[in-house]
Amino acid sequence: MSDAQPNPYAPPHAQVRDIDPARRPLQKPQQVRLAVALLWISLALGPLNLLLDDRSPARTIVASQPAFLGLMAGALAGVLALMAVLVVFIYRGRNWARVVYLVMYLLGALPWLLSLPVLFGHSPVAGAVYVVQGTIQAIALYFIFSQPGSAWFRYRT
Known about the structure:
Blueprint (H helix, E strand, L loop, with lengths): L29 H23 L4 H8 L3 H24 L3 H28 L1 H22 L3 H6 L3
Helix pairs in contact: 1-3, 1-5, 3-4, 4-5
C-alpha cells in the first residue's frame, strides 16, 4: 500500500505563525501599573463622596426610611466589590475586564455629567471629589487602552 492516495478526510494543512517572542511584552508596563493604582484611588473616593454630601438623595431616603439603610449599604458594597474585582482582573491582564470597565464608565458618563450641578449645589467639596474621581477613571482608561498598555493586554491569556 505504498501507492496509497492521500486521505481525503485528513485535516487541512496550514502554517501556524505565532507572534515573535522577542516582540511579546512579558512585563507589565508602568503605564498599566499606574492605571491600576489610579483605579484603586478612584474606588476609595466613592464611599468618601457619600460621607461628604450630607444632602444626597441616598441620605435623605435613609433618614426618612431607616429600613433602606441595609439595602443602600448592600448596593454600595455590591458595586464596590464588582469594581474591585474588575480592577484585580485588569491588573492580571484580562482584556475582558478592561472592556467591561470601559462599558460601565461610558454607561455612567451621561448620568455623571447630569448630576454634577445638583451635586455641586449640595456640597462643592463632594462635587469636586466627584469630578476628580471621574477624571482619574478617564486617565486610567486612557492608559490601559493606549500603547504600551493595550499591547500588553493583547498578548495576555
